[in-house]
Amino acid sequence: MIAIDEFHHVSANPGNVLGAQLGAFIARDKAHLVAMTGSYFRGDSEAVLAPGDEAKFETVTYTYYEQLNGYSWLKSLDIGYFFYTGRYVDAVAKVLDPALKTIVHIPNVNARESLKDKEREVNEIMSSLGDWQGIDPATGFHLVRTGDGRTLKVADLVDDSDPAQRSRVLAALKDPIQKDNRDHVDVIIALGMAKEGFDWIWCEHALTIGYRSSLTEIVQIIGRATRDAENKERARFTNLIAEPEAEQAAVAEAVNDMLKAISASLLMEQVLAPRYEFTPKNSGPKDGFDYGDGGYKEGGHNIGVNKDTGQIHVEINGLVTPKSPEATRICKEDLNEVVTSFLQDKSALERGLFDQENTLPEELTQLRMGKIVRERYPDLSEVDQEAIRQHAIAAMNVTQQAKLALAEADANGAGGSTALIDGVRKFVNVRDLDIDLIDRINPFDAAYAVLAKAMDEKSLRQVQASIAAKRVSIPEDEARELAKRALQFKNERGRLPDINSADAWEKRMAEGVAALARYRAQAKARQAEGELGNG
To answer: How many Å is the maximal CA-CA distance in the chain?
Structure first.
C-alpha cells in the first residue's frame, strides 16, 4: 500500500513528473493507493487525475462541517475580502486586529501590490500595530507596544538579511515546549513561509495581501487558522485586494486580480458549506435526517439535516435525477469540482459580477455550466449531464442565497458553516423551490452585493464599463446551445421561443436560433464562394 499526502501536487498533465510516476503505478495495478488532500483541485486548472484513473478510486470526503463539528472549541470560520486603494501598508491597520493571533502574508516582490521593499513593508506593518520596543534576544521576536499598553511579540519571517537572527526566529516558532503556550507569539509576518504544513494552533486570523493565483495555496493558508485550540471559537481569513482605481487608464490587470480573488473566496465558501442531498419534490424523507417539528410533510417546504454529517436534504421541483452510477456518484461527491471549473471560467465571472444588465442568469446557469459539464464528462448521457448541471447550480445558488438571506437578517453576516444551515432554512422556507427558479438566479448575486458595498462607486462603474465593452455578439457555440434549449422549449410548449417575448430568457433563446441561422448561412456562402473560385 502507498499512502500519498498533499495529493493535489499530482497533475494529469503529461509533463508532470509526479503524475507520470503515479500513472505508472496505477497502470501496474500491483499496489493499493491511498490519496489524501485538503484541496482536490489545482490552481492551474489542470485535472489532478485523468478521468480513467480517477474512476479507480473510491472517494471518501471529510467535510469542513464534519471537521468543525468534531472540534471542542472552534465553531465558525469567516471568509472575506477587503478592498484598498493606494499603498496596502496604509490599509493594513483597518483589517489587522492586534487582539487576534494573526499570520500576515505580504505580497511577493514581483506582485503588483508589492512596494518592492519587503523589509520596509514589514516595518510599516509593525508600526500599524504600535511602537517598536526592540528584539527579544532569546526568540528573535520583535516587541511592539500597542496603544492599550500590551506588548506584542511579532515573528518576522520575511527578513533574510541576518541568517543567525532568522534561525533564532524559526527555532523559537518550532519549539515544541511552546506549542501549547498561547502567549508565545502574537503575530507572524511571512512572505513564502508559514503556509502548507505550518502548525500554529492559536492562529485566529489569516490575512493575505494581494490575490493568489493558486486556489490550493489559499486553501492551505486558510488551513493555518482552522486548528482547534482552547477558547478559540472563531477564525477568519481576509484577502486584502487592490481596488482598480478610477483614474487608471488600464484597469484590466487589476480587474483580473480582483476576479481571481473573488473566485477563490466563492470557491472556499462552497467547499466550507455542508453537503447537499437534492431530490425531486415529494420524494419522501431520507433516513438519518431531522425535518424539525412535525417531521417531513408531503407537499411542504421540507429541509432535512443530518446532524452527524451536516448534510442538508433539499427538495427541488422538476429536478432531473442522474441515471448512471457514475453520474449519481458525481452528484453526491464531486459537485465541488464542477463548481471549481465554473468559478475559474473568467467569462462567467466577469459577466455574472459586472455585466448583470446584459447577462441573463440562464446564460450562466444553463449555457456556461452546461458547457463545462459536457466538456468534463463527455462520455455521460445528455440526461446525466443535465442532472449534474442542475445539481451543481443548485449547490451554488442555495449556498449563495442562504448567505444572502443571513446577511439581510443579520448585519454581521453568516457565522460559519453551522450558521449556513439557518440561511438555507430562511431561503427555502419562504418559497417552493423548482429548477426553473434556481436557473433564474445569478450565482454571483451575493458576491455582487458585497462588492457594491465595499467598492468605491466610481471604480465599480468603471469596471462594469470595461467588462461590458468586451461583450461580443452571440458566439457560435453559445448560439448552438441556445438553439438546443429552444428545441427543448418547443417540445415542452409546442412552439418555438418568440424573439419579441416579454420573457428575457425566451427572447434570448430566439436570438440564439437566429444567430445560429446566420452562422450557417455565412458558412454556406463561404463554401459557395470557394466552389466558384475553384470552378
So the answer is: 92
- Type of residue at 266: L
142-145 vs 131-135, strand pairing mode? antiparallel
Measured CA distances, 234 to 225, 307, 409, 422 (Å): 9, 20, 20, 18
81 phi, psi to nearest 5 deg = -125, 155
Full DSSP string of 35-67: E--S--S-TT---SS-HHHHTTSPP----HHHH
Summary count for the chain: helices (H), strands (E): 20, 13
Kindly report, residue by residue over 286-327, the tens digit of the pLDDT: 998 988 888 888 888 888 888 877 788 999 999 999 999 999
Are 339 and 376 contacting, i.e. CB atoms less than 8 angstroms apart? no
Residue partners of 198: CB distance under 8 A and separation at least 6: 224
What nine digits make up the cell of 30? Answer: 500491483
Residue with cell 475553384: 534
Which residue, 106, 130, 101, is CA-closest to 120? 106
For residue 247 the three cell numbers come to: 483614474
Cα 89 to Cα 209: distance, rounded to the nearest angstrom: 9
Q: Go through 117-131 and write b for each residue having 16 or more CB atoms within 10 A of its CB, e for each that does not.
A: ebeebbbbbbeebbe
Cell of residue 80, nine digits = 472575506
> What sign does the dihedral 110-113-115-120 (CA atoms) show?
negative
Please report the pLDDT score of residue 416 as a whole number: 46
Mean pLDDT of all residues in 376-396: 94
